[in-house]
Write a structure and sequence with these properties.
The chain has helices spanning 2-12, 19-27, 94-111, 147-154, 195-205, 264-282, 291-301, and strands at 35-42, 48-56, 71-76, 120-126, 132-133, 140-141, 161-167, 178-181, 185-186, 189-190, 243-249. It has 314 residues and is an alpha/beta fold. A seven-stranded mixed sheet has the order 1-2-4-3-7-11-8, sandwiched between helices. Helix 3 links the parallel strand 3 (71-76) and strand 4. Helix 1 (2-12) packs across helix 6 (264-282), helix 2 packs parallel to helix 3 (94-111) and helix 5 (195-205) packs across helix 6 (264-282). The longest helix is centred in the last third of the chain and has 19 residues, at 264-282. The protein is globular and about 50 Å long.
Length: 314
């Protein structure tokens, strides 16, 4: 797995990085039945980003008439580079690197005959020229496009569950280097952490799982003037599917726009977590949440989908 991380980070750590170059690398893995697409979207101030989508069909996936569930893997970031303000690959690009590395490995597995039961969809976006923005306690990366646009291109109705990978180093809440997972978020509710995904985390890391805390405002949409830990749970505002954040973390606050701050072995952990989750989820062997408990929760307290909106406006 680490070889894919190294290759992907090298391709992201250049001012010439592009969705086209990464798509060419992904196609070289040889999975002929996979779909790899790139779409360039222009944002404000003349900046643009390349959205990359990888679709890998499963042996019993819905795309071929089967019933195996589809996993979405989203690499979240503002940008892989903050040029011209900063030179080099920024910390915030780790989620993109992890998702693309997982895509490369899954494509190679499929080409060699290790086809997963369910379809897998991997989405992210790529730019080496993104703005920075202030955030407490350390600065974040901005993006050439807004969060609604990201969700439009990265969150798909076919995703039955989503793993959202994002650098989550700019805080004083998670004092751990490696990866941490979030509780499951679904339809405006923060649910209990999935025992199945805790087990996957411990298998992948070889140590006790770390589950990071969420506040209610963390799962509301950007643009409501509330503090968010980062964009890791933003996919949850655009879907009814359960979403779990996979945070790439550090023991001290590190700015999202910092260069020289990426740890290949931690990116590899996040990638491997995504791959193992895809294996078991497509086979129906793990669950992101307890459906009966969720139904009972909604019956008792009602829908919480208002938290997926911008809320009341004056």
């Amino acid at each position: 797995m680490l070889r894919y991380v190294i290759d992907v980070v090298e391709m992201l750590d250049t001012p010439k990085t592009s969705g086209a170059s990464l798509a060419e690398f992904l196609r070289s893995q040889g999975a002929e039945n996979a779909e790899i697409m790139v779409k360039t979207i222009e944002g404000e101030e003349g900046l643009s980003t390349d959205f990359v989508r990888v679709f890998i069909p499963g042996s019993r996936g819905k795309s071929s008439g089967g019933s195996a569930p589809t996993l979405g893997i989203i690499g979240r970031l503002g940008g892989a580079g903050a040029r011209p303000e900063r030179i080099g690959f920024v910390s915030d690009g780790d989620g993109c690197a992890a998702a693309l590395s997982a895509a490369a490995k899954l494509l190679n597995m499929s080409a060699q005959g290790d086809v997963l039961p369910g379809d897998v969809i991997i989405t992210t976006h790529v730019t080496g020229w993104a703005p920075t923005e202030p955030h407490d306690p350390v600065p974040f990366m901005g993006s050439p496009v807004d969060m609604e646009t990201m969700n439009d291109f990265e969150v798909e109705p076919e995703m039955d569950a989503i793993v959202s990978i994002d650098t989550t180093k700019g805080n004083r809440t998670i004092n751990h280097r490696g990866i941490a997972i979030s509780p499951t978020v679904k339809s405006g509710y923060i649910l209990r952490p999935s025992e199945d995904l805790v087990s996957v985390t411990e298998t992948v890391t070889g140590v006790s799982a770390v589950v990071f805390p969420l506040a209610t405002q963390d799962i509301t949409p950007y643009g409501n003037d509330l503090h968010h830990v980062n964009s890791i749970l933003q996919p949850a505002v655009a879907t009814d599917a359960p979403v779990v954040g996979v945070a790439i973390t550090t023991a001290v606050p590190v700015a999202g726009c910092a260069t020289g701050a990426s740890h290949a072995t931690d990116i590899e952990l996040a990638s491997r977590f995504a791959i193992e989750t895809a294996k078991y989820f497509g086979a129906g062997q793990i669950s992101f949440y307890d459906a009966d408990q969720f139904a009972h929760l909604v019956n008792l307290y009602g829908e919480a989908t208002h938290l997926q909106t911008l809320g009341r406006t004056k």
